[in-house]
Amino acid sequence: MKFYLFCLLTVVLLNSSWCCYALPGGDKFSFAFYGNQIIAAVQEKIPSKDEIISSGNNIISYAKEKIPSKDEIISSGDNIISYAKEKIPSKDEIISSGNNIISYAKEKIPPATQQVKEFVEKNPKIAYIGGGVAVGLVGHAAVAGAIGAAGFQTGGVVAGSWAAKLMSTFGTGGSVIPTLQSVGATGFSALSYITSSLTGAISGCVIEDLTEDKGDEK
Question: Which Pfam families is this protein grouped with (predicted)?
Answer without folding.
Answer: Ifi-6-16
